[in-house]
Task: inverse folding
């Protein structure tokens, strides 16, 4: 499964959303490595900028989690990496429903032909819920299902 995940991953790894979410995101990344799943990223995007800044953190736990994420980002079997010129524009019927700051996520999702966009943005999910070409899931519901499948193995 190809995924687009927004910046919640970075904020969780930093511990900004609490210890429980940090642990869930760590487990998500560990499970992503075990499966044939991949994440799609856009070079030069705000997401990638935050991911690289994560490496500069001094505390041992964040540095360890950063190494896990960066191992995934450097693995072409785990990451679909796009250059800005490889990305298609959002179709006009979607454009008015997507805030400017989220356009790159939708463009990445469509260009990667991803199966799901995982977000914490309730408003974005509501705005795009009527469009069949975008499957969007909220972080908590997605991770509950993703990690539950891991426990069932």
Result:
């Amino acid at each position: 499964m190809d995924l687009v995940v927004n910046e919640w991953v970075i904020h969780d790894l930093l511990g900004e959303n609490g210890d429980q979410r940090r642990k869930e995101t760590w487990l998500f990344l560990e499970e992503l490595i075990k499966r044939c799943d991949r994440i799609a990223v856009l070079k030069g995007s705000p997401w990638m900028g935050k991911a690289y800044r994560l490496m500069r953190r001094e505390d041992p736990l964040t540095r360890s989690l950063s190494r896990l994420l960066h191992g995934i980002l450097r693995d072409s079997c785990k990451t679909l990496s796009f250059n800005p010129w490889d990305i298609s524009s959002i179709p006009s019927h979607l454009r008015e429903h997507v805030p400017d700051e989220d356009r790159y996520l939708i463009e990445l999702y469509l260009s990667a032909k991803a199966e799901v966009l995982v977000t914490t943005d309730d408003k974005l999910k509501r705005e795009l819920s009527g469009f069949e070409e975008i499957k969007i899931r909220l972080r908590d519901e997605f991770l509950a299902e993703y990690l539950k499948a891991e426990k069932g193995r």
Summary: The first strand starts at residue 2 and ends at 5.
